[in-house]
Amino acid sequence: MDFIIHKTDMQNAPKANEFSRKFIVRSRIVLEIENEQLKYLVVDVEPYERDIPAEDTNYGFSETGPTVFFAESNGSAKLAGRIKMLEWWNQFAYIDDIVVNPEFRGSGLGRTLLEHGIQWARENNFPGIMLETQDDNVPACTLYQNHGFILSGFDRNVYKAVRPNANETALYWYLIF
User: Fold this and answer.
1) For 10-24, 66-80, 90-104, 130-144, which range has the lowest pLDDT when averaged over its residues?
2) How far is Cα 93 from Cα 114, in angstroms, rounded to an integer?
3) Apex CA 132: angle with CA 128 and CA 133, to 5°?
4) What pLDDT is stored for residue 65 in this prediction?
5) 3-class SS of residue 79
């Protein structure tokens, strides 16, 4: 399947609710620390549906705001996915959002969007990229690891205020150039 990927600005960008973040969780990341390095195992879990809410927010970390790339299915102009990049407070590029609509998952679009984000960060002379995902989003973690990202941190309480009963851990991944 072919996709057309184009850069847009937030004023002209479709809103986050045009993308579905629903997926079936079949496994989770279990963390270990060995010789002061973060390691992990993937363990199977009883499958359940997960929906990650998202908002279109400009956090104001950069005067230029976010850079957004959208992917459309070639020929149909149907929104297939997006990646939203920011300049983070610590001078890294930050992947604020990467999403592929369900009917396009497994097509390689996530990889293509990630590669666009990496290219954007390199072209803009960032020292690397960071992002955050959850321990129950194993396909995303695998994608990041396959592109050279290193699991560098975690936070077990970051979601407690917004989802008090959530049993999830935020995972922080870095790609240093």
Assistant:
1) 10-24
2) 12
3) 135
4) 74
5) strand
What is the model's pLDDT at position 26?
A: 96
Q: How far is CA 177 from CA 6, 18, 20, 50, 88, in A?
A: 24, 33, 31, 33, 16
Taking all residues of the chain, what is their mean pLDDT, rounded to a whole number?
Answer: 88
CATH 3.40.630.30 is held by the domain 3-176: yes
SS3 for 144? helix
Q: What is the pLDDT of residues 147-169, one digit of tens each?
A: 999 999 999 999 888 888 878 99
Q: Is 164 exposed, middle or buried (0-12, 13-18, 19+ CB in 10 A)?
A: exposed
What is the dihedral sign for C-alpha 92, 119, 11, 55?
negative
Short-list 69, 134, 65, 59, CA closest to 99: 69
Rg of the Cα atoms in the chain: 16
DSSP codes joined into one string, 19-68: S--EEEEEEEEEEEEETTEEEEEEEEEEEEEEE---------SSTT--EE
pTM of the predicted structure, to 2 decimals: 0.87
